[in-house]
Amino acid sequence: MRQMSGAQMVCEAIIAEGVKTVFGYPGGAIMHVYDEIYKQKGFKHILNRHEQASVHAADGYARATGEVGVAMVTSGPGFTNAVTGLATAYMDSIPLVVISGQVPTSLIGTDGFQEIDAVGISRPCTKHNFLVRSLEELPRILKEAFYIARSGRPGPVLVDIPKDITVAIGMFEYPNRVEIPTYKPTYKGNAKQIEKAVRAIKDAKKPLLYIGGGVVLSNAYEEVRALAEKTQIPVVETLMARGVMGANSPLLIGMLGMHGSYASNMAMSETDLVISLGARFDDRVTGKLSEFAKYADIIHVDIDAANIGKLVDVDYPIVGDVKQVLEVMLPQLDGVETERYEAWRKILRRYDELHPLSYVDSNEVIKPQWVIERVGELVGKDAIITSDVGQHQMWAAQHYPFDRPRQWINSGGLGTMGFGFPAAMGAKMAFPDKTVINVTGDGSILMNMQELVTAAEYKIPVINLILNNHFLGMVRQWQTFFYEKRYSETDLSFQPNWKALAEACGGIGYDITTKEEFDTALKDAIKQDKVCFMNVAVDRFEDVLPMVPAGGALFNMLLPKTEKSDGEA
Amino acid sequence: MQNNVNERRVISVIVKNESSVLARVTALFAGRGYNIESLTVAPIPNSDMSHMSIETNGSAKVMEQITKQLHKLIPVYKVIEHEEMIEKEMVLAKFPIAENLSDISVLSAAYNGGVVNVGKEMIIVMVADEPKRIKHFIDAAQRYNPVEIIRGGVVAIER
After folding, report:
1. In this predicted model, what pLDDT tens digit does every residue of B93-110 receive, in sequence order?
2. Are A94 and A150 in contact (CB under 8 A)?
3. B1: pLDDT confidence band, cut at 50, 70 and 90?
4. Alpha helices per DSSP H over A204-249
């Protein structure tokens, strides 16, 4: 028990939770906390140049490490700028604690300067939030915030602290345990249900493992790999699960969904047993629901009971942590006849030979897919790849040889442009020795480009790989396919001078128009201790394929044109 | 209960009695597009919990989601989808004093109530009964030109 101010309690809690880096931006209501940050040595604070970037950076830190990320903002606009960051983390179940300043208790409700109802606004985009009402409850709330953020289905938690409470002095002892009678996450799956699921697996002819981001969150990839190995059941990964199986796994069919591979989407369309692990049947994955996995029974393992049966009817619901459920399930699969599924594996191999993930390379212009493949060849499994949102994101997800979970960091649920750069900075702060590359586009990167200054100041040398097609490419692609090529407000022909822009902020810029230049620039960028923009001119009209048109059935894909096919399936 | 048929349902939600918990529950209904027909909330005696009775409607699938989503809220302790329940609703109704007072008195007595106040110009009655019968009371009350009728919302308890 020590006497200290509320502001000091905030710092003590952050230190006690083992957080090494906090991202934030000061302001009036949070100044007392910043005064304590100035005095302490337990964690580093990074001053982003926009609160949204602070939350994304904390998010990138959390995704790369699996630990809780922390961001700090002031009241009013400081908080509202952070909302996109909260929503991004919420949709992807990322553990964050965001501390926001609030006007003094006596001013709450008076429309005070920089007052906004932070808990009201953030209610639908946080796992939970707190408005601290007294100094006495502050230590408990801080402890609960970290606990709630990381336990069960993880998510962001907001702690809104009125200024007078940060000033007030009281006794502090950080609780060492949490007791919330109304919050008891279920980790252990129901044993009977698991037994039934095992029987279904043994009885199936065409089972399919459908792996989602929950496997990454639960650190269950070893168990998932073991399950696939043991049963020889083929695997499809969602966007959020890239890297779980590793690019070289012979059992990995690929990514499924709107831009999934032909074989993956056909596998889902023809399977007789979906084994869903930590996936939530997102509309970008399922396509038309009535046609989704039409011939299959469904095993659904999810820590969030509300995900089960939300979109598809489930035959074997198992509420629990994927890792713990698989630990129970694996021994029960001893002696499973792997030969049973050989005919099925053969069908899928044939589908993959028929329509592999492909593109037609060119010597005249750089193809974006080539860039991704080349990055994979040059930095492969050592790098951490983040991305923004759009075509570049899908090309990265399709073509990068992801080898392990937490290597691929992107905003899958909310689809937040501007996420990639600050998230890359967060990942780089956690793993300074790893090459961190943000695969981005000429649209997305501008949405948080002020972070050039932050990254330059703190020497956070992340590489922003801009696949520059002078378009908001994904919207342009939809306009090509579904709006008779009316390119409404997607033409980005007016461009900044990227090299000069990077340099003006203290970074490095590379303008790249040939493959040779690309290799030279990337090798140079990796060696630098400065942030950079790699501006790569790519084919303007390249499309992301395959593509399942929104609302269509998974098996109705637009495919790339090759010698063998005309692009219809 | 069939899968796609919308049905009236009453659920009880036991929540921690803390500020903004009502907002969390109603925001969930609003944000996910669920209906609230009526809602009552009050503290549970000798505890730090409150009891909410929510009258809603939806298909079995929607009801399942409502229950599960409510469960996810941190201060929600328990969600009870009532099957075998006793449900009651209270109503206050105000009539002009010039109406037939004995009729009004008999009417309210028939619905488990009575006269609770008589003033210079108005008479006020209270009734408490099952929601279906409350509808009958309100229909019957119309002929006495009610000035104001206030429904209290359904409260339910499992048998």
Report:
1. 999 999 999 999 999 999
2. no
3. very low
4. 213-217, 221-231
Helix axes B21-31, B60-72, angle to 10 degrees: 140
Contact between chains at B74 and A133 (C-beta distance less than 8 A): no
Residue-range definition of the domain harbouring residue A403: 368-537
Sign of CA dihedral A551, A552, A553, A557: negative
Q: What is the DSSP letter of B98?
A: T
Percentage helix, strand, coil, to 5, in chain B? 30, 45, 25
* Active site (annotated) includes residue A130: no
More confident residue, A561 or A525: A525
Domains for chain B: give ranges and CATH numbers.
7-83 (3.30.70.260), 86-158 (3.30.70.1150)
Q: Which residue of B20, B23, B74 is in closest CB contact with A183? A: B74
Active-site residue identified among A36, A51, A223, A451: A51
Q: How far apart are CA A555 and CA A269, in angstroms?
A: 6
SS3 A323: helix
Tens digits of residue pLDDT in B40-90: 999 999 999 999 999 999 999 999 999 999 999 999 999 999 989 999 999
Of the listed A127, A163, A206, A323, which one is catalytic?
A163
Test B74 with A148 for CB contact under 8 angstroms: yes
Mark whether A474 is an active-site residue: yes
- B27 at A interface, C-beta within 8 A: yes
Is B61–A133 a contact, with Cβ atoms under 8 angstroms apart? Answer: no
Domain assignment present for A422: yes
- Say whether pLDDT at A567 is over 70: no
In a domain, A341, yes or no: yes
Sheet holding A44-47, edge to edge: A44-47, A21-24, A69-73, A96-102, A156-162, A128-131
Cβ separation of A181 and B77 shorter than 8 Å?
A: yes
Measure in Å the smallest separation between the Cα of B31 and chain A Cα atoms. Answer: 7
Residue where a domain stops, chosen among A354, A385, A412 = A354
- Name the 3-class secondary structure at A551: coil
Interface predicted TM-score (ipTM) of this complex, two decimals: 0.91
pLDDT tens-place string over residues A215-252:
999 999 999 999 999 999 999 999 999 999 999 999 99
Using CA atoms in the order A322, A327, A333, A334, what is the torsion angle rounded to 10 degrees? 160
Q: Is the peptide bond before A546 cis (omega within 30 degrees of 0)?
A: yes
Residue A130 phi, psi (nearest 5) = -130, 135
* A84 and A142 both lie in a single domain: yes
Based on the fold, state whether residues A197 and A284 are members of the same structural domain.
yes
* Active site (annotated) includes residue A114: yes
Look at A131 and B24 and tell me if their CB atoms are within 8 Å. Answer: no
Closest CA to A352 of A460, A245, A235: A235
